[in-house]
Specification:
Layout lengths: L9 H8 L3 E6 L2 E14 L25 E6 L3 E7 L7 E12 L1 H8 L10 H7 L16 E4 L9 E4 L13 E4 L9
Antiparallel strand pairs: 1-2, 1-6, 2-5, 2-8, 3-4, 4-5, 7-8
The chain binds a DNA duplex (13 and 13 nucleotides) through strand 3, strand 4 and helix 3.
DNA sequence: TGGACGATTGACT
DNA sequence: GTCAATCGTCCAA
């Protein structure tokens, strides 16, 4: 098992992540989700945390492909990224939304909400999977958070749009999601 | 050492 | 549609 399939540009790797699964083991429970929405970020992108270079916070983004980068937004929400590309180059894909496959009830309990609201946003994914800053830099080959490759989706199943909630480079179309999946975030 | 700010969410009008 | 919550991080002084 290796993550050479993520050793691509952040755009290609982000699209390749759609349909892949994350397995989260916690309190003896197994949570399994499918990635349905992502956004690409890299060092040459003004909207990326790595645009300013390597810092204490974003150093995980400079690790080899297949590590996790978790950050805290607005002091409230933890967001998960999958690091992509070459080690030493700060790039990755923000996991914006997932579809519960296993352990949905655990996620609903952690979220305090059911329905599609359970995981249809980056902060919601972080809460449903109970992630925090200590997971930044974690290898996604190891328990308790594992990334599992799935067959690549057809290009016709992927929609590309502008990103959400950023204040810079808002015109870059680097948000990708699975057509028709109800867990895709709204905005 | 301090102040400004954010790849968001949810509550409220 | 508007807006507050809340804190780790970054940078200026």
């Amino acid at each position: 098992m290796n993550f050479s399939w993520l050793n691509l540009s952040s755009e290609s790797a982000a699209k390749r992540l759609l349909g892949s699964e994350l397995v989260r083991e916690i309190d003896g429970q197994t949570l399994r989700v499918k990635i349905v929405e992502v956004e690409a970020y890299d060092q040459d992108d003004p909207a990326s945390h790595t645009f300013i270079g390597k810092t204490k916070r974003n150093q995980a983004m400079f690790m080899a492909a297949g590590h996790a980068y978790v950050y805290l937004i607005h002091g409230l929400h933890h967001c998960l990224n999958v690091v992509t590309g070459e080690e030493g180059y700060g790039s990755g894909a923000l996991i914006r939304a997932v579809e519960p496959l296993e352990g949905a009830e655990q996620m609903i309990a952690r979220r305090g909400k059911g329905g599609y609201d359970v995981t249809n946003g980056p902060g919601k994914v972080g809460q449903a999977l109970s992630l925090d800053l200590s997971y930044s830099g974690h290898s996604l080959m190891e328990s308790p958070l594992i990334l599992i490759k799935q067959p690549e989706l057809l290009e016709s199943d992927i929609t590309t749009t502008t990103r959400v909630g950023i204040s810079k480079a808002g015109d870059r179309r680097r948000r990708y999601y699975i057509v028709g999946n109800p867990y895709v975030s709204k905005k």
